[in-house]
Specification:
heteropentamer, A mainly alpha (134), B mainly alpha (271), C mainly alpha (124), D mainly alpha (87), E mainly alpha (92), B: 271 residues, mainly alpha, two-stranded antiparallel sheet, 2 strands, 64% helix, globular, E: 92 residues, 3 helices, elongated
Chain lengths: 134, 271, 124, 87, 92
């Protein structure tokens, strides 16, 4: 018998996974290159949010969860131990942080490529680009 | 038929993921009752005055992971960012945008222009506070840089591309600014090593606080304020690199399409 | 004593804000065209965001169990409130002007449009 | 009195479900400008989910990037190329 | 005092969620582009207020910074769409 907390958490997780699936369909089967770029951004966002969800921690008492930032400027050892108990996992956050910025840079590169393709071929539809020669 | 096969694969993917979650692939308690052991170590050593061997002297665990515990990762991620920007720029080689001084008639209505003038100051202030306070409160170089990059974009959209260039933010200036940022990151990474060589004691690349076998390091405090050694400098330079790198791309995207097509045609005729 | 007054005042402001929010959401859903929906959106941004932000600042000042950090929340809420007060009308204005000029939101049984007549007479 | 954690998780689940609807509409929409706007709805919902997952750092970098920069880039691209996806 | 504040916030939450759902219906249904942007706009400004209230509820003061950022950037979405509808080129 699962409790309500796990049930709601699983709903959240599965919605994100369905998002992953839908955006994967968009990346693979939509003919427009611009639509592919939009789908790719949604795909990377969903992948990032999955990583963050894995670092989440169950609440033991209500209100006992905190971001991984120590607020006390002069902590004792007990304060640090207590902080390590209530804070969420900082490692996925640190990885996702750089992934978002690099994702934007890569998307910009893809945008420039799409623009160049449009200048030379006059279309952004992959089926028509595949038929063109030269 | 191919589309049906693809749909089937995607449905299988979702089902497999659901199965993995249901059968305990993320641990049998979803979400877990406590953080994993590695994360616990990071949380304990991020700001720990009692253990000077491993601490990063930064109360924010994320920034201390990004620039201290896993600093080399972030350095190479910055390299990927740099290469993506360079790749985008190389597609625009040889394209020159014309200068214009008469820019009053371009852009949106005067109400929006006035509000944007006020807002740009707020944006720069928020970006600076996010980046320079990144080792104490949530924030850091990437956040501050992404925030600061929206200000030139807003000016480009509300006024015009020419207004932004008349302000002095031209392509070469921005490229120089970005290079200064990247150079600063490199210099900060080597600073502890240089200090160690001068003091004739062992030191490492990307070293922040003194270690038992390498007693040199950058100071955690200047006066009374906590700067966490190298972290403040990394955040500062990263903000410049990210903001200038994105702005140069927007400047190129803002060139009107007719001009580029004309230049491409001239280039084709020359060959 | 002052804290208790701040808490009650803040709660009252947040309650007003929530009420405005619900009204605006219903209005945005029920009104028939874009130019009418602009009115509902104004209620939603100023009544539904500015007022509860001021209320949240007061509530944060009253919650003494947060220690010195409650001033941080209050300051952040005030800055956000001022930002909303400046930006929301400007954004709506830009959107409405663009929608009218580009004919993106056309009202079908149009009775009168003085703005369009003005522009026609100015240009012609 | 309902437990606070259940309320917060309930909000998170509701927003995740809504983001699925927004994603579906963004992928299937024919007009590209509307697809960008649906993707902006999805980004806003994700920002709230990041907030509830206690990741303020990610919110601070995600909101400028995906609400402030992505729509501008894609709208510039659409303005320079095509407005509609071909069927 | 803590009880008073958290009880009040828990009572307020469902109304906020209901209005967000209504805004979302308009944002996803909106017949024209300006309607959608208007609904997103109103929803996000209210979301900023909601985030500040939640920061008091969670007792984590540093979460407030996210509200400032959210309120700043949703303005830029308005501007982009306005420029897209109005102008011939995005850069001019």
């Amino acid at each position: 018998m699962i409790d309500v907390f796990t049930f709601l958490f699983t709903i959240c997780m599965l919605s994100i996974v369905v998002n992953l699936g839908i955006s994967l369909y968009g990346v693979l089967y939509k003919p427009s290159l611009i639509k592919k770029i939009i789908s790719l951004t949604i795909f990377s966002d969903s992948a990032n949010i999955t990583a963050i969800i894995i670092g989440y921690v169950r609440w033991r008492n209500p209100g006992e969860i905190a971001p991984p930032v120590l607020l006390n400027p002069n902590p004792t050892l007990e304060d640090i131990e207590e902080f390590a108990k209530v804070a969420v996992d900082p490692l996925p956050q640190a990885l996702v942080l750089t992934a978002i910025v690099i994702g934007l840079a890569v998307t910009l590169f893809l945008v420039f490529l799409t623009l160049q393709i449009y200048r030379f071929y006059g279309t952004t539809d992959v089926r028509r680009i595949a038929k063109l020669k030269g | 038929m191919r589309r049906l096969l693809g749909l089937l694969v995607i449905v299988l993917f979702i089902t497999l993921f659901a199965l993995v979650i249901a059968s305990g692939g993320l641990g049998y308690e979803v979400p877990p009752l406590r953080v994993r052991e590695l994360a616990r170590q990071f949380l304990i050593y991020a700001y720990n005055p009692f253990n000077t061997t491993f601490t990063a002297k930064s109360p924010e665990a994320v920034t201390s992971i990004v620039w201290d515990f896993r600093g080399l990762d972030t350095l190479f991620e910055t390299l990927v960012f740099y290469l993506a920007i360079i790749g985008a720029l190389s597609l625009y080689r040889g394209v020159e945008s014309e200068r214009r001084t008469e820019v009053i008639s371009l852009g949106l209505s005067p109400i929006v222009k006035t509000v944007t003038k006020v807002t740009t100051g707020i944006i720069i202030a928020v970006a600076a506070s996010i980046a320079l306070h990144g080792h104490l409160t949530p924030g850091g170089g990437f956040q501050g840089g992404a925030t600061a990059a929206v200000a030139p974009l807003l000016i480009l959209i509300v006024f015009s591309k020419y207004f932004l260039e008349n302000l002095g933010l031209r392509k070469n200036v921005l490229l120089a600014l970005r290079s200064i940022g990247l150079l600063g990151i490199g210099m900060t990474a080597f600073s502890a090593l240089i200090v160690g060589l001068m003091a004739n004691s062992p030191a490492y690349v990307f070293q922040n606080q003194p270690k038992p076998d390498a007693p040199v390091g950058l100071p955690a405090y200047i006066g009374d304020s906590l700067i966490s050694g190298t972290l403040w400098f990394f955040n500062f330079f990263e903000m410049f690199a990210v903001a200038a790198g994105f702005t140069v791309i927007f400047l190129l995207l803002g060139i009107p399409e007719g001009e580029i097509l004309k230049q491409l045609k001239e280039e084709a005729e020359e060959h | 004593m002052l804290e208790v007054i701040a808490i009650y005042l803040g709660q009252a402001l947040i309650a007003i804000g929530v009420f405005c929010d619900l009204i605006a959401a219903i209005g945005l859903l029920r009104f028939p065209n874009f130019y009418l929906r602009l009115h509902a959106a104004t209620v939603g941004t100023i009544g539904g965001a500015f007022v509860p932000l001021i209320g949240a600042a007061l509530l944060a000042i009253g919650s003494t169990y947060l220690g010195a950090y409650r001033w941080f929340i209050a300051g952040g809420a005030l800055v956000t409130a001022i930002i909303v007060l400046i930006l929301a009308p400007a954004g709506s204005h830009a959107l409405a002007r663009a929608a009218h000029r580009s004919r993106a939101a056309v009202v079908e049984p149009k009775v009168v449009d003085y703005l369009e007549e003005d522009e026609v007479s100015k240009s012609g | 009195m309902v437990e606070a954690s259940v309320i917060v998780l309930g909000i998170m689940a509701l927003f995740a479900l809504s983001s699925t609807i927004a994603t579906y509409l963004a992928i299937t929409e024919r007009s590209l400008v509307k697809a960008v706007l649906y993707s902006a709805v999805q980004s806003t919902l994700y920002a709230l989910i990041y907030y509830l997952l206690m990741a303020p750092d990610i919110v601070l970098v995600y909101v400028p990037v995906s609400v402030g920069l992505y729509p501008a880039i894609i709208l510039m691209l659409i303005k320079k190329t095509e407005k509609e996806e071909e069927g | 005092m803590k009880e008073l504040i958290s009880t009040f916030i828990i009572a307020v939450l469902p109304i906020y969620i209901a209005s967000f759902t209504l805004y979302m219906v308009r944002a996803l249904r909106g017949p024209t582009v300006p309607d959608t942007v208007l609904a997103i706009d109103a929803m996000t400004f209210d979301l900023a207020a909601f985030l500040v209230i939640l920061a008091i509820f969670f007792e984590s003061p540093i979460l407030v910074a996210t509200a400032i950022v959210l309120a700043l950037w949703i303005y830029s979405l308005d501007i982009y769409v306005a420029k897209y509808l109005e102008a011939r080129e995005m850069g001019e």
